[in-house]
Amino acid sequence: MVINAMEQIMKDLLDEYKGRLQLNCTCSTCLDDILALSLNKTTPRYVTNIEKAMYIKAEFIDKQEMTSLLVKLAECAKIVSDHPMCDNYQ
Ligand SMILES: [Zn+2]
């Protein structure tokens, strides 16, 4: 199994900060759109199981990098929130 550790890390960040991102819509489609967009802008870090992803989060991602991931997430949240593509806005 090969997974992108950033996927889990971004997902955790989004869970933690979605309340503060002033989203127009917080349905699962919009949250997935934000996640996908953010991950497309983030260099992937592939690991072979989910525990290793957590290890990467703990050991390799410093505060500064976490902050830049959060900035990226906020940018993508704004893009999706300004133009939601989900059923709520069709
Ligand atoms: Zn939505």
From TrEMBL:
Q: Under which name does UniProt file this protein?
A: Late competence development ComFB family protein
**InterPro entries under this entry?**
ComFB
Q: What Pfam families does this protein's entry cite? A: ComFB
